[in-house]
Design brief:
Elements: H1 19-32, E1 55-61, E2 66-72, H2 74-79, H3 100-111, E3 115-120, E4 130-138, E5 147-154
Antiparallel strand pairs: 1-2, 1-5, 3-4, 4-5
């Protein structure tokens, strides 16, 4: 459980298994301060070097809703089933609506709050059982979500 969220926060305490995701949440939470969510300009890659390989940054287009892979960490790129940088989720058959990842991104967009979930690991590394992802909203105006900051841990 994370106890770093401010007492007046609407952010639920998250039970994260992955140290990568815990670090990502702690960083996101510290950067948002008293705001609902931090802005992209608050995220400094030099401050999160340890978890950088486990990060995705997704652009959000509100109308029609879609999510574009802006940045994919090197560890994530190794486990992807293709090269997704620059692609919109709606153009990736197994990720477009109503896929689990699409639904999770939409939930974060609508709620303006982080969401964590576990899914069975599908990939080349047989030592992992599940993938725990953590999707956190970013906003330039603290109102409209315009990016998603995602960390992924393998458990």
């Amino acid at each position: 459980m994370n106890s770093n969220a401010p007492a007046n926060s609407s952010i639920p305490l998250l039970a994260l298994k992955s140290p990568i995701n815990q670090q990502g949440f702690d960083y996101w939470n510290a950067k948002r301060g008293s705001r609902c969510m931090p802005a992209r300009c608050d995220i400094d890659p030099s401050e999160i070097l340890k978890i950088l390989p486990h990060i995705f940054l997704l652009d959000v287009r509100a109308e029609p809703l879609d999510f574009r892979y802006r940045l994919i960490g090197t560890k994530m790129d190794e486990h992807m089933m293709g090269s997704y940088t620059g692609l919109w989720m709606s153009s990736i058959p197994h990720q477009k609506a109503p896929s689990r990842i699409w639904s999770s991104c939409r939930q974060v967009f609508d709620s303006k709050a982080p969401l964590s979930s576990d899914v069975p690991y599908v990939g080349k590394n047989k030592e992992f059982l599940t993938t725990e992802d953590l999707i956190m909203p970013l906003s330039d105006d603290d109102d409209q979500v315009n990016m998603l900051f995602v960390t992924v841990g393998f458990v």
